[in-house]
Amino acid sequence: MRYVVVGLHAAGRSACQWLRKASPAAEIIGVDPSPLPVYSRPLISYVLAGEMAPPGMGVADDDFWNRLGVSVLADKAVGLEAGHGRLLLKSGQELAYDRLLLACGARPRPVETAGDAAGEVCFFRGRRDLDKVLARVRPGGTAAVLGGGLVGFKLTMGLLKRGMQVTLIVTSPRPLSLNVDAYVGQWVGERLQNTPGVTLLTSTSVTSIDTGTDKPLRLALDSGAALDVDLVAAGKGVLPNTGWLADSGLECDYGVLADAFLRSSDERVYVAGDLAQAPDIVHGDRRTNAVWPVAVEQGRVAALNMAGLRAEYAGSLAMNAIPVFGSRMISVGLVNPSLTRGCDFVDVGTPRGSYLKLVFREERLVGAVGLDAPPRLGELAFAVKRGLRRRDIPAGWLANVQNAAPLAAPGGALVGNARFG
Ligand SMILES: Cc1cc2nc3c(=O)[nH]c(=O)nc-3n(C[C@H](O)[C@H](O)[C@H](O)COP(=O)(O)OP(=O)(O)OC[C@H]3O[C@@H](n4cnc5c(N)ncnc54)[C@H](O)[C@@H]3O)c2cc1C
């Protein structure tokens, strides 16, 4: 049996480990243009912030693939003839396979308004992006960060720690609008506004980016203002790497469509990670949830199915936990206000305590967002997966946490006890 795994990061690496467990004697070939050393992508934001040295990103030594018995080809997949079981590589090599896993992730969403200055815009996806950003960092210099999601937020805080003056430009009315509820988004926005060195521009778009005269780059904003900066970095979401699969015969939508066994429309081809548009627990449709634990779990499930061990995928779930201004911010499942219409909420918070919002749909937990709240991310994710009922909320979740970030009660509504409805 020959397994070929395209992409050796979170999903691909997890899959290789499970393939090896399930098929000790099988041939496993991994294809990735940048396979060594094995590192963790999320950690690039810690290196940018100066909180970690680059070697700290490593999660395995250079002998990792050897020990696992995976032959690694430092090559790029450029075409797939799924009907013939053939993968085409950039080097010209053709690889036949019995089972193929596509785990080639996603790339940053491009900045359409960059025009001729596009090459100067930095992204923040991997080690090369980190190097490009660091090469442009100047203590006392100015930076514009485009995009108010988690990557934009991490870029802003990292550049600030490197001594730059940062303007964060967000098209939504508040940062993290897709990741948390309106209350926590507002809270983060207020703290950003009050952070020396940060300017937050909400409901603002960049209309063009050009090379500048006073500074390397000049941004024109839809407000009519112009901004001269040393560095532009964009974190405006990602797009699955599906381009090279256009003629593959696989069914693609936003990502590569996968069934409940993470099998694509071709029975020999499986998908996992940021590339996979797979069943989602709370939405009930197929979508991508581009987070590390989802990629790792999908890699596991896909590998077991590739090895002939029937493993049904429970479905993916958006989840995040990040430190924000000294507080622990967590979010799971449905929390984006535009997606929670018709849901019921349980809010808990105190003026000097923690905040937790639990989102219920038809009495079942479908999402949660918290600041220094008692439940851990894993507990909340597990509760959403098993459809926790409102009457079964663990009492400990509703307790206040001492020394948590102070919260101003929104509209005076949150004053310490659970509010239902
Ligand atoms: C700055 C940053 C911070 C993040 N923070 C968090 C976090 O805190 N928590 C969290 O859960 N998630 C976080 N994420 C998201 C997480 O890193 C991704 O969800 C995860 O890396 C997805 O894994 P993947 O294996 O599907 O894809 P990727 O990590 O994108 O890996 C894909 C691999 O495929 C290879 N590849 C691409 N195209 C080809 C091709 N044609 N042929 C061969 N190989 C190819 C690439 O070289 C790469 O090695 C963060 C991401 C970033 C960028």
Automatic annotation (TrEMBL):
Tree of life domain: Bacteria
Any Pfam family the entry gives: Pyr_redox_2
GO molecular function, one term: oxidoreductase activity
Classification via InterPro entries: FAD-bd_OxRdtase, FAD/NAD-bd_sf, FAD/NAD-binding_dom
Family: Belongs to the FAD-dependent oxidoreductase family.
PANTHER family reported in the protein's UniProt record: NITRITE REDUCTASE [NAD(P)H], PYRIDINE NUCLEOTIDE-DISULFIDE OXIDOREDUCTASE DOMAIN-CONTAINING
Protein name, entry field: FAD-dependent oxidoreductase
Organism: Solidesulfovibrio aerotolerans
